[in-house]
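The methods section describes the discrete structure representation at length, but only in general terms. An entry of this sort, consisting of the sequence and the corresponding backbone structure tokens, reads as follows:
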Amino acid sequence: MSDSVLDDPDVDRDVVRGFGARTGLWVPLVARSATIGVIAVHDKVGPDARFTSNDLRLAETFASRAAVAVDLSQRIARDALRRIVDAQELERRRLARELHDETGQALSSILLGLKSLDEKVEGDDARTAVADVRELVVATLQDVRRLAIELRPKVLDDFGLVPALDRLTETFGVQTGIGIRFESTLADERLPPEVETALFRIVQEALTNIVKHSRARNISIVLARKPGAVVAVIEDDGQGFDPAAVREGGFGLEGMRERVGLLDGRLQIESSEGAGATLIAEVPLG
């Protein structure tokens, strides 16, 4: 409590002057031993604007109940987001499997049929037409396989994060011409599936952003263990940006933060105009 907020060294005087406050009372919202907010009250109604110990106890009672409500609301929102993310990954896995097993096999069968047809048709025009169709089917088959990998690479489920990122960065370098270096200290260690998925998606989104916005020539990705956590660091030598000026959700950052937040991790972005960018995703383990 403060009987004179303008004389209180812990109060932002410019803020309280903005709405003419004279007295103040602050009570933290505490849920599960963590402070999740604060209740601020100014200028008690009545002849005396100062707050009493009874007012403080009343505010504390209200704060304890409000903290429970806020915490419950946050947990419900978090659980809903987790279900959405899980459903998205499940649908990605299903679509990738269908593209690979059904569409891919159907196109491969068409190629075999075209090969047989090519041996039977006569005339240059007919053979040219068959060759043109074969080229179209081959290009389509390559696109289908690429889409299946982008949706949900099978190597991620079968062999883990490191091989999946190895394949992702190799393909990315070939397709874009950008120099990319991937290093990992995890060796053959497997992480919890939700951690592997989250980090793979974050690296995937970061690479997409770099191609679209950064004009980078080189990229470095490091995956490392630290006590109780795993860290992914993505750096580029592009044109950089001002993180504070990026609109909410820009560059896919909101989705990255949501994925890391669901695992109680943190996402840090360091960049400035003309100086490249560094993205650090840290996720606790155990």
